[in-house]
């Protein structure tokens, strides 16, 4: 049985002689073919569940893997960034802008990147205290609800459930807002970030408890968000 397990793992990864590296690559390759639950990951790699869980969790810490809303492992933003060609300069330029935005609003701030049929949080800043919305870096969220999803839908050729007239308004305003759309009790306002050539590179969001941001997150923090967008795009 043990020899069979070793054989199963090696069919997904070259044998480098460094066991933990070979197993890590086997897990990444398995997940790259589609999101995997722990049971599926163990079956695909031939690794015991405890081993697969330990390594996958470690890869998640480094954002090489991430978790879907259903708890399965998926490819994380570190690899997604390499595959889509996103420059590390984006994160470096965004970090001080996002921190200033947190300081000004007292709310959470996220930066999302389009990753296939999902949006992935590639950077996040949180206030030091108080009730706030936490989106872990690496989280993959739906493109069917939320202000960031609306911005991606307005500026990307993706399938969308949103009304075309609503998306036209998003393009005209330069932002989108939502209250209790993706999650009860959560509200947000988001704006697109464009590269110098005009291509959409990310979406910047402010999010927090709906009780603080309603009835209109855009009325409350839209000007601050658009100022941050201008600063970030200038840095790019």
TrEMBL record:
Extract the InterPro entries matched here: GAF-like_dom_sf, HTH_MetabolicPath_Reg, Tscrpt_reg_IclR_C, Tscrpt_reg_IclR_N, WH-like_DNA-bd_sf, WH_DNA-bd_sf
The processes (GO biological process) annotated in the record are: negative regulation of DNA-templated transcription
Q: Where is the HTH iclR-type domain?
A: 18-77
Q: Where is the IclR-ED domain?
A: 78-236
What Gene Ontology terms describe what this protein does at the molecular function level? DNA binding; DNA-binding transcription factor activity
- Write down the superkingdom of origin: Bacteria
Which residue spans adopt a coiled-coil conformation according to this UniProt entry?
none
Per its UniProt record, what SUPFAM superfamilies does this chain match?
GAF domain-like, Winged helix' DNA-binding domain
Alphabetized UniProt keyword annotations: DNA-binding, Transcription, Transcription regulation
Record's Pfam families? HTH_IclR, IclR_C
Q: Could you identify this protein by its name?
A: IclR family transcriptional regulator
């Amino acid at each position: 049985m043990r020899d069979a397990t070793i054989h199963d793992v090696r069919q997904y990864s070259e044998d480098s002689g460094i066991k933990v590296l070979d197993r890590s690559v086997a897990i990444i390759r398995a997940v790259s073919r589609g999101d995997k639950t722990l049971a599926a990951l163990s079956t695909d790699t031939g690794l015991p569940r405890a081993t697969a869980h330990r390594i996958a969790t470690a890869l998640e810490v480094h954002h090489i893997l991430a978790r879907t809303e259903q708890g399965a492992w998926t490819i994380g933003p570190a690899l997604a960034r390499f595959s889509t060609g996103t420059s590390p300069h984006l994160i470096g330029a965004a970090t001080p802008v996002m921190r200033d935005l947190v300081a000004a609003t007292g709310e959470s701030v996220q930066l999302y990147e389009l990753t296939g049929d999902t949006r992935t949080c590639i950077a996040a800043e949180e206030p030091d205290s108080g009730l706030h919305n936490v989106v872990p870096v690496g989280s993959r969220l739906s493109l069917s609800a939320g202000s960031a999803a609306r911005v991606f839908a307005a500026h990307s050729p993706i399938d969308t459930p949103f009304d075309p007239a609503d998306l036209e308004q998003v393009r005209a305003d330069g932002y989108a807002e939502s209250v209790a759309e993706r999650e009860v009790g959560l509200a947000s306002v988001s704006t697109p970030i464009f590269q110098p050539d005009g291509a959409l590179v990310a979406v910047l969001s402010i999010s927090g408890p709906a009780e603080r941001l309603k009835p209109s997150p855009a009325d409350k923090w839209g000007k601050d968000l658009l100022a941050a967008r201008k600063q970030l795009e200038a840095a790019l």
